[in-house]
Amino acid sequence: MSIVWFMQNYLHTYGWDVMGEDFIIEAEGVTKRFGKVIALNNVNLKVPSGVVGLIGPNGAGKTTLINIIIGLVKPTRGRVSVFGCDSWKERSKVLRVIGVLHEGAPYPTVLTAIKFLEYVARIKGLAEPKVEADMAIKKVGLGWARNRKIATFSTGMMQRLGLAQAIIGRPRLVILDEPTSNLDPIGRVNLLNLIHQMNREEGISFLISTHILPELERIADYAIFMHEGHVLESGSLDELVKKHLNYDFSIWTQHPERLAEALHSKDYVKQVNVKDGAVLVNVEDRLRFAMNLPVIAAEHNLPLIEIRQSRRNLEEVFMALLGDEDAGNAYEA
Amino acid sequence: MKKSSWLYSVMKMLETLMKLEFEDTWRWPLLEITVIVTILTNLSNPQAALSYGARLFYLYFYMLMFTSIIFAKTFAASIEKGNIKLLLSYPVERRYIFTAKFLLSFLILYTAFFSSYLASMMLGGGHTSMEWEVTLNAVGVTLFLLLLYQCSVATLISIATSRGMLAAIISILALWRWGAPVWFLSPDNSSVVLFRYLSGADVSIVDAGLALITLLLIPLTVLSIAYLLFCRVMEFD
Ligand SMILES: Nc1ncnc2c1ncn2[C@@H]1O[C@H](COP(=O)(O)OP(=O)(O)O)[C@@H](O)[C@H]1O
Ligand SMILES: [Mg+2]
Question: What is the ipTM of this complex?
Fold first, then answer.
């Protein structure tokens, strides 16, 4: 046991963020083949703490990567370390500090929710299983259904239960595989809010795989884009947006060309384009732009129908990454 | 036992896993059916006058049905449905999951078969020339070894197929086809030698010892292979 491991695992418990800038997951040259299918192809990755989105269309290799991270699947080549421990060779050690929600996991339907969570707490080796189970079920807002059999749960309740069994025992990292894919829009927002809250209040990091982007951009700090077994790119959301979207605002108005012309000469505007009926503006100074835009619009008698900041538009970043052509197909897949 | 000791935490883990397995797999009425049916089959045995040893031979065929189905459920179906994948997402070693599943099903089946045998002895009358105590010893040990053999084969087949229905069918056929030769008709007749020794017949202790070793060695070898295969299958590739 190295000193680094000790510092990461114990000092953290007492609120010492000794390894502040460190990465929590590191993958080096990870390749995974299933027979002839190459699910992952030489994946290199460093994941920081926080809320991280693992984004990609179906079949991109998200689940396979997650399964390797939690030591369930052995990589054909390469290695993954989680909090400095090898995820295959030291899987018990790794799993003691992370929680996992699998897609469509078969929870024992004959048990009541609270009974099941107690078993999970026991298997995780926690000192007070009853207390821990009780805390977890309340945190996900399922306290009212604690004595109901899991068989009677709706999809939304099932996802909450899945979250509860993952967060039991205060893990440092929780990995969620497609947590929102079966939920209705309200269910998605609720679940993501819950995740956001737990991240802020308890400092739990989250790795969330998904092919549904719009909700995630609100809560994610960092994104990893995957496609056909490769990591296309990863980085903080702000960095990625800056790099791949060459505009900061999109504006809808009555005569986009006229607005574009009016904005063109301003010194706080770097670049203006018109695309699909929207004015795409790249600005030098966000604040001055925001203050002046309504004035300019009023001068030219143009209504501002809609203004959107391009920050945090994951879908567009993804499209830009894939190139316009096959982006549509990939997202449909 | 000290609470912090390694053994204590292993026992605790096994206990938890077995309880969970029991609630998940042995849900009503599987356990009840197993016990009732074994008692009935023992009672309705037409050859009530058979020796207790010969009764074991008949019991073997009833046992293999239960063993095959239950181990197909315990191992194959839970691999198929992903229950084991879920368990492996918690900090628990593969060997504990394997041990807990095997041990629980084995113990339940052994208890069910042995108690039903006991019930049929008490209710069914018939042969009484042997001492009770001696009979129970002989039957207890032989039944243990018979069941161990069946369970190990069923486990191996369950893990190899990883499909519930398929595992049950293949296990039944395999135990049916090769069970009797291995157990009753093999050249050295190990189980008969052992049974006779334990019932007080004139058999040398060396022969009995050899028989016991043979009868333990076969299932343990099969079980080791099953475990290695389990670890392979659980790498999910
Ligand atoms: N157990 C498996 N056996 C064979 N192929 C698999 C297996 N698991 C995944 N794959 C293949 O690997 C690729 C990546 O799958 P997956 O990781 O599930 O993608 P995602 O979760 O991003 O949808 C797919 O082409 C899939 O068919
Ligand atoms: Mg997936």
Answer: 0.85
A113-131: average pLDDT: 95
The angle formed by the CA atoms of residues A205, A207 and A210, to the nearest 5 degrees, is: 145
Q: How many A from CA of B148 to the centre of ligand 2?
A: 40
CATH number of A23-242: 3.40.50.300
Distances in Å between the alpha carbon of B115 and those of A165, A249, B91, B119, B148? 39, 78, 37, 6, 17
Please state the separation of Cα A314 from the chain's center in Å. 11
Q: Is residue A164 in contact with ligand 1, taking CB distance under 6 Å?
A: no
Number of domains present in the structure of chain B: 1
- Number of neighbouring beta carbons within 10 Å of residue B52: 23
- Can you give the residue range of the structural domain that contains B87? 2-233
For ligand 1, say whether the CB of A210 is within 6 Å of any of its atoms. Answer: no
Q: Is A39 in the pocket of ligand 1 (CB under 6 A)?
A: yes
Query: Per-residue pLDDT tens for B187-223?
Result: 456 777 777 788 777 788 888 888 888 888 888 999 9
Contacts of A67 in chain B (CB under 8 A): 236
In this predicted model, what pLDDT tens digit does every residue of B129-165 receive, in sequence order? 556 677 777 778 888 888 998 999 999 999 999 998 9
Q: Rounded to whole angstroms, how far apart are CA atoms A244 and A319?
A: 9
A108 chain-B contacts, CB cut-off 8 A = 20, 23-24, 83
**pTM, entire model:** 0.82
Assign B180 a pLDDT band (cuts: 50, 70, 90): low
Q: Is A31 on the interface with B (CB under 8 A)?
A: no
Q: Select the CATH number that applies to the domain covering A246-309 from these four: 3.90.1170.50, 3.40.50.10800, 3.30.70.100, 1.10.10.10.
A: 3.30.70.100
- Of A246, A247, A258, the C-alpha closest to A296 is A258
Cβ <8 Å between B89 and A100: yes
Nearest atom within ligand 1 for CA of residue B237 = 1
Per-domain residue ranges of chain A: 23-242, 246-309
The verdict on the CB of residue A62 being under 6 Å from ligand 1 is yes
